[in-house]
Design goal:
213 residues, alpha/beta, Rossmann fold, seven-stranded mixed β-sheet, two-stranded antiparallel sheet, 31% helix, Tellurite resistance protein-related protein, SAM-dependent_MTases_sf
Length: 213
Amino acid sequence: MNHNQPDTSDVIQNSTTDEYYNQHAGEFFETTVKLDMSATIHEFSAHLPENAHILDAGCGSGRDSKLLIELGYNVTAFDASSKLARLASEYLGQPVLTCTFSQFKSNNQFDGIWACASLLHIPAPDMSQTLCHLSQYLKPEGVFYASFKYGSEDICKDGRNFTNCTESRLADFVQETQLSIIKTWKTPDTRPERVDEYWLNALLRKNGSPTSP
């Protein structure tokens, strides 16, 4: 498999997921934009150089991009939902791209990639290839943050597909990539109505010599 060639599986597989976020963009924005992710972002930023350029992959409301910008980083953000991308752009005061993971292309190489609760919509068979596609835009030794709902079984909710993840499943996803696991940790959902749900957080690092997208 040529991991440098993005496929269109996430466009096809997640069309209903994208429709959900377009239909519920305003509600999703309001319920997520004020959630406090500062502790996790500081865990991520501890591995970044000063003035780092970060890719927010699947930025949703733009909440995390905003904090990263406030911390002094340069952020490029995208989301597959055109309506969420527009709301995020208005919130951030800068352009937000509309594209899926496999559609994303850039002439830049990033110091870090932030994928908070976004890769979980990629089908499990396509996860390694998606990680490979994104990480080709990551500088060697760059850091990659990703989070998934904690669990070993995939689910479908409100027309959205969720690929859940455990530590061992994450290791399987990463095995065929240029990424290695720095650390993983579990956190409870910060929304009051979801206190019984947990998330798997992962910090990954890109190995190897420089590559060009």
